[in-house]
Amino acid sequence: MTEQNSGGVQAQRMENTALENNCAAVLSVADTVRTTLGPKGLDKLLVDELGNRFITNDGATIMLSIKTVHPVAKMVVEIADRQEIRVGDGTTTAVVLAAEMIKEGKRLITDMGIHPTLIIRGMESGIQRSIELFRQMAVKIDMDDARLAHVIATAAGSRMDGNQVVSLVNEAVALLKRSEGKRDGINFKKSILLINKPELEDMVFDGIVLQKQLVDTQMPDNMKNAGALLLKMDVREIKESWIKEMKNYDDVVRMKDSHKKIIKEISDSIIASGAGVVFLASPHVDEFLFASLIARNILPISVSNEEISSLAYAFDLPIVKRREDMGRVSAGTMKNVSYDEEKGLLFLENNPQRKVVTIVVGGATRVTSQERWRSVKDGISSAQSALSDGVVAGGGAIELYISEKLKDKGMNSGVESLGVEVVAHALSGIMRQILINAGFSGFEKMTEIKKKSGEYGIDVNTGKSENMFDAGVIDSAGIKINALKSAAEIVKAVLRIDRILIASSPHNAVTGKSAGDAKHERTQ
Question: pTM of this prediction?
Fold first, then answer.
């Protein structure tokens, strides 16, 4: 009996050790970004192996730059990646929420002996209820709502050169608002393109800007109402390696003649389409085709797959992918095509059916330019999410309100209620961290507004309670919901881990094979 008790105690110690280890890994990663949260958050200086320097307080950039070998710490880094891909902002919020939930969950498991599955079940109830409250409190807005500008300012205004960054995004949004087409379905991620050019001044252009060096500098710098064609097909030249593989000289001649015939057919079709500009998305473009087009005063421009998709979206042009379709497509019209050789930029002005604008982000140095570019991207992502999912009070106000709602007696019944309190504790941690970063006592200031509505927070400049909507501190509800979901997924996974084992082969674990099965297969 004594041996059984001893074994149980030892197993419990191993479980606690694993949880302690995992919790410490999560907190160490979270501590690198939690001081960046809020308008008074601080910056980080990142230095890579080559000595390149980056100054930023962007959570995603910091998290994805962290080098860690701890498996759970890597899972936390994945939160940043997932949040960035899904909504483009709110990475720091997601990481802080995850850290607070894991810390509180660990306390309940190790100090109170609560089983992890009970805590997780309660957490799921708390998260579901929180998401419902976020959606209930969200206020729908449209492109003409003044609160959209406040969302952009909240997301990007506290960053490097915040006022200039916010004005760039607002100017781009204003151009899209004047579009003659439908505005309800505007996708900012498609409709606002970004270029990072440290040596240039900031600029917002009504159309598409491409960073290009033209193949022929003798072509005109400005073309009005130019016919345009988009090609995405294989127009590469014959490689010497192909010729070397052919032993028969007649085969080489036939291949070259056939290739020239194909290129001539493409060239003739382009001329017949009425195009003055041709955008080609191909890894390798035949020089004969380029020379043939230039000789006929047609401007050929090599572009990436991403760029040709933006051009098609902006100008309602089809992308020709097969030679068989060349004769059936007519060139579309671009209002104005101009080239600035000094800057290396090609400007394609919008048609009246405006859809796309370009923000050129400059900076005094490459480092500052990159940080300003990231700030612009955050502002755009927040605006897009706000239009899709509505807005809520910022500054941690809505999280504190929902935290108090979760603590109401109606939610709390049985041991599982402790899991609900884990979520409540984490949500209140957002405002607490913002206030700490601003130099205030988080608990003291939060006590002043706990009983107020979800619109009230603390002004980080004065330390006084204020309506966040009136103060213009407004966030996207969608970004907050996604941050909570991302954090919850990682927390539930970490709390269920009771051992850290060294697997003989990760492949065996995935495929369900034993080490013996794998060894037997290798010997056959």
Answer: 0.82
